[in-house]
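Give me the fold.
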Amino acid sequence: MRIFCMHCKKELQDEEYCYCNDKSYSIIYGNVTEYGNGYICECGNSELQFTLHVNANPKYSISYKCLQCGNMITIATYHEGYGNE
């Protein structure tokens, strides 16, 4: 599984925080090969099914499942200002 910042596309280690954007912070968990105009699973499929949304403090998460291989992709967005104390 890869974890990377949606803003600067830096690949991150588990639980690492990226300071490239001071307003919000989003990371992608999963084996995604491309994103920008949508997400493409590492299997090459871009058809994803929404599976879950969780709103919590300090972040909210949206999960999708690849309809071809079953890979799970989660986008976690930290609420504004998190990590910039």
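The longest strand covers residues 48-55.
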